[in-house]
Fold these 4 entries.
Entry 1:
Amino acid sequence: MSNNRKTWDTFEAMRAAAQEGDAQAQCYLGVCYQNGQGVAQDYQEAVKWLRRAADQNDPVAQCYLGVCYWMGQGVPQEFTEAAKWLREAAEQGDPAAQCNLGTLYETGQGVPQNYAEAVKWYREAAARGYPAAQFNLGVFYETGQVVKQDYFEAAKWYLEAAQQELADAQCNLGLCYMTGRGVEHNMQQAAKWFIRAARQGNKTAQHNLGLYYASLEAAEEENTEAAS
């Protein structure tokens, strides 16, 4: 959740604050019901508390409520309603909402498909350190869609997200080092990032790592044969 949020010593104190109308407590309680933390998982109960907080203009609750509509958790799946709540939070500077709203614009769910608008929101969230937005922004720079193709800028954003352990960004950064796009060609660096992504289960990184090790073995065999 965002910085500068309240905390409570106990779950019951937080629940009591929520029942008394505290928006942040209502938001936390809603998230607890959504994730099954301290209570049995109950999406409808989550939506009830998230909506109470969202109606008080709590941006974190608005973001979570938007995701509930996006995923159809506790409410019927409604992309337009998802976009509405995500926009409310995004305009207050919530980076998760900004990234999610960017995704809706990229996919055309709940809003007209608009890549420029997607990039705008990804950039807002990326500047606030949100790793998924940093990765998505990097992809736009790498492909040259909407923005001018810029491998250096792509690698920069991949690195920002990779350092926050986003596996897809680590894999793409490894590819940058492997191909020399946006960074100097460096197979040791490529392997380093492939390993970090592969450990998180990224299939592309695992495949690329396998190819890298195979190339090392082939080179070693050639050197052995040349020396004999």
Entry 2:
Amino acid sequence: MDINYELYKVFYYVATSLSFSEASKQLFISQSAVSQSIKTLERKLDQTLFIRSTKKVSLTTEGEILLLHIEPAMNLIRRGESQLIDAASTGGQIRIGSSDTICRYFLVPFLERFHKEFPNTHIKVMNQTSIKCAELLETGQVDLVVTNFPNSYYSNVSSVKKIKTFHDVFIAGTAFENLRGKTLSLKELSSYPVLMLDKKSTTSEFLHSMFQKYQLDLVPEIELSSNDLLIDLAKIGLGVAFVPDYCVPQESEDIFVVQIKEELPERELVLAHNENIPMSKAVQEFMNLFSEV
């Protein structure tokens, strides 16, 4: 089927913004031109791609299917453009996916070192959960990710390298001073308010699986998307928080680690990239920073 690439490009911008006016701004063309392009594409495909109303635009089922294929293609084109710019030097851009916690407590020194060595390279960091980062990697929206592992969302095309091991711990504030120095079982711990990351995280999957292993139900008191906020809430006595050991404040009088009887398996931080997509020189140089880790 002979369809102009520009029609798919217009479709992509409308589908991702769900706005004809916003797409026209991003494409620097008139709104009527956007509308006409979508009509032409729908006619050539003999499918309705958008549901239009006076207040909003939404994708039809057929539009959602098309977007699943167009989005990775658009990301590959952008990646190719970036690599062409980057071909002669380590300039250009590197796109990294990682969580807020991993960025703050692990990646910052590596980002600082890379920036000093290659100041002309633009660094873009997309902060998402480890699960979402795996999706960004698979669809080509990032060049590499640094995430928690195990991560069941990695596809077969991802190359994964271990760069750090860590343990998860339960922490509490002075409101639970009676727990300091004691060793609790997970069953005993479950009677206290548990603070943890939300269900869209590998950490949540990990802790729920541990409770299931011992045939226990885990009903969190609070679920959040930030480990730092979990630590803050533990400090003020809202409950016992479950966080990676590397982000626990050292020598803090406001917080302490609650010891448990069961041994939790260690987890890993890994560096992953999509083997099916060629790496730019800048991405290779960044990954080389971890060769000595």
Entry 3:
Amino acid sequence: MRFNMPPVTKNLIIINILMLLGKYVANRYGIDFDDLLGLHFFMASDFRLYQFFTYMFVHGGIEHLFFNMFAVWMFGRIMEQVMGSQRFLFYYIVCGLGAGLVQEGVQYIEYLYSGLQAYDSVNLEGLRISMDAYLNRWTTVGASGAVYGILLSFGMTFPEERMFIIPIPFPIKAKWFVIGYAVIELLSAMSNRGDGVAHMAHLGGMLFGLALILYWRKKGGGNNNHFFGGGNYRGFGGSDNYFTRYEDVTEGSHQKGPSQWLRNIKQWWADRRKPKMKVHSGSTKHADDMAWRQQKKEREEEIDRILAKVKQGGYESLSKEEKQKLFDASNS
């Protein structure tokens, strides 16, 4: 079994692991990473602007880190191969920042709804503390917002991909998996207030991820080739090749993904279309060859049209006849 990972996914996992180890070491010297690098409520005295970035690399413990990084490994490596390394990193950071912004907004609404602005202290577990000290306790840590953004991108890219999710005894499609997660988070945010989980931040990561994907697709004219790996997209950097393509971030053809079969078909079709030298004699044979070449050209144009349709709308957008033609071509 091979565990090769594209660079951004690998380095994100490494950085988050090192940050947790650093947190344990710092605690021995009286330094609280959660307090220093976690995202504080913007009205608290300990809030710093850089915390919008640093909070997504700090986790509460090993279990918190494991589940987040397992999702990054499972889905992030696929999406990095599809998007390209630089675009994937940009997407990850935007989802994390978006989650932080939504969390700040939800906390501000809670601050106003609870009427805390009218008090200068609160009674917490029988102990009277100042309002500033209380607000400084509103701290958010973890990469969950960015992770939920990755889940969304996977569900939008491979909506029909079937997945086995423990403890569900049957496979479910990725699109229903993502929708189900979003619904669970929304219901949890409404019914489990005070459970210590930033449910709205998770939804914020998905919301910002959705907005970014729709923007990229719009800039690409609805063509997934522009969304996946840059293409003619000039949204950042002003260059077609600013974003790394899939082939640039892998080490060979052993890298696999849900769309590997489509890349195999494209390669097979490109190989079949390479010019081959043939020699025939006689006018009848020449006429037969002309007819054969015309039929071959028409078949190639039809397959090209079908492959272009798969690029734009996915395999499920094909009609039954088109699917059969693609199958026949790959086995001829």
Entry 4:
Amino acid sequence: MTHEEELELANSTDENVRRALANNPETSAETLNQLSSDDSMFVRVRVAAHANTSPEALQILSKDECGFVKEFVAEHLSTPVKTLIELSNDREIVSWVAGNPNTPVKILEKLSKDEDEFVRISISVNPNISDQTLDKLSKDENENVRAAVAKNINAPAEILARLNKDENELVREVASENPSTPV
């Protein structure tokens, strides 16, 4: 599809056409930038989730009124670090930020103390979390947090060995399935 055809579709009055365009893996970043200010939340969600969406469009979408749009921005691999830091202060979005591998380690360590178990679970599976923070989370009172640590393929062998003997059956099961767990 040519650039002109894409722009024509982006200006369509039919929301389904704009949705399909925002969903097309071949849609250009330029067209997605235009669609990032679409009136339809459904189009903006698809733009926020699209692999070709530019960091600039993601920054704009991070201020969207719709939490669902912001969730996709928070987990997008092209979201600027500055935007992730800003979103980490949003209680509705913080667990999505915690799972993004581009979230700075300093923010992840701060969030590892969060009272919300879903935030701690998201951090526990983040591939960039420090071993020290993983160790702390592996001793969390919540078994779902410990299970998430057991799922992290970058967890050190010592932590996985301990979780393989956890009091909770789910934690032991998840640890045993991790290919990094010592036999």
